[in-house]
Amino acid sequence: MEKITKFQQRFNECLKYSDIKQTELAKAAHVSKQCISDYKSGKSVPSIDTLFLICKYLEISADYLLGLED
Predict the structure, then answer these.
(1) Which of 3, 15, 31, 36 has the most CB within a 10 Å radius?
(2) Would you call 66 exposed, middle or buried from its count of C-beta atoms within 10 A (0-12, 13-18, 19+)?
(3) Residues 6+ apart with CB under 8 A from 17
């Protein structure tokens, strides 16, 4: 069984409870929709620059997404 990272768990949670579509977020973060899918599934994690854009667009802190704070 694959371990779910704190980032993956919180990223999925944020997308689920927002009205933001994966395609919108991909465009705002300057990545492909496949990249967003890969972040959701845990296949990859965003770069620092992409993480910054994701957090800005979702209006959440990187510390929260990374599991450094609640």
Answers:
(1) 36
(2) middle
(3) none
